[in-house]
Amino acid sequence: MQQPSTQNRPALAIGLKLTAVFFFIVMAAMIKAATQSIPSGQAVFFRSFFALPVIIIWVAQRGEMREALIPQNLMGHVWRGLFGTSAMALTFAALGLLPLPEVTAIGFVTPIFTVILASVLLGETIRVFRLTAVGLGLIGVMIVIWPRLTLGAGDVNNVAFAGAMMVMMASMLRALVQIHIRQLVKTEHTAAIVFYFSLTASALSLLSLPFGWVVPDLWALGLLVGAGLLGGIAQILVTASYRFGSASMLAPFDYASLIFATILGYFLFAEVPTWTMVGGAALVIFGGFIILWRERHLAAERAGAKAVTDPKA
């Protein structure tokens, strides 16, 4: 079996990660444009189904088809697909209701929810650093969505509030996915997790057929197919970036998505971010950086302890 490269090439790793982040935002912009006339469930199908050929080619090239096609925990993949597909559908629906930068900014709360769920479901201890990060992140999200919390002030405001709640629910589901994957990787190969998510998401999205799928025009069809292909490529680029750099080094570059979303939102949809959104997003990002710093510090402590206790070190 072909073994993946694990060279330490930080410049290449950062370049791959930034390219992947940019592609994901372009994909979101394509979905936003398409969902003006296409139901979000139908968009989930195209995003997942047309990513499959890209993923299959990638897995075959790595010589990991056997690992991808033979899961050890099939129900684990089904649950991962259910959580992930629901999060994707909610995000796609919200993209049709809110500006792209705002959806991106609220989505940064995912690491905050991950810390909370890890404490509740896995019994992980939340100490002062993480508690501070959670508090800052939640305050930041409240600042971002505060203008959307005035109900009864018109249909536009109510729709925007619904969109903000969809992104919050999607962020919580993505956090649940991350917790679930922590358990899934104990028995499952990465190739299987990637392949079966796209497969189950494609199948689960078909459940939305009775709720009003439409025949897309050529423009919408091109956007949907392009979003699927681009999403598959971005997923591969993210995976490739971790061959050349550590997860803790690359994690902060996820926040570049807000810059990309702001630029694309302005030029494609004439969306201008408010100072309230920028200020709230800054707090959420700062809280995320605290979590990243703490994780890196704990990892270094664990590595140091292992070096002391391991006689072969």
Q: SSE order, as H and E?
A: HHHHHHHHHHHHHH
User: How many strands?
Assistant: 0
What is the helical fraction, as a range of percent? over 70%
Give the low-pLDDT segments: 1-5, 307-313
**Overall geometric form:** globular
Radius of gyration: 20 Å
Number of domains: 1
What fraction of residues sit in β-strands? Answer: under 5%
Please give the count of helices. Answer: 14
- Broad structural category: mainly alpha
What's the pLDDT, averaged over the residues?
86
Considering the chains and any ligands shown, give keywords for the structure.
single chain, 313 residues, 14 helices, globular, disordered N terminus, disordered C terminus
Secondary-structure topology with pairs:
Layout: H1 10-34, H2 40-49, H3 52-61, H4 65-69, H5 74-95, H6 100-107, H7 110-122, H8 128-145, H9 155-184, H10 190-205, H11 218-244, H12 247-250, H13 256-269, H14 275-309
Helix pairs in contact: 1-11, 1-13, 2-5, 2-10, 2-11, 3-10, 3-11, 5-9, 5-10, 6-9, 6-13, 7-8, 7-9, 8-14
Task: Please characterize this protein's 3D structure.
- The protein has 313 residues and is mostly helical.
- The chain has one domain (10-309).
- Helices cover 76% and strands 0% of the residues.
- It is built from 14 helices and no strands.
- It has helices spanning 10-34, 40-49, 52-61, 65-69, 74-95, 100-107, 110-122, 128-145, 155-184, 190-205, 218-244, 247-250, 256-269, 275-309.
- Helix 2 crosses helix 5, helix 2 (40-49) crosses helix 11 and helix 3 packs antiparallel against helix 10 (190-205).
- The protein is globular.
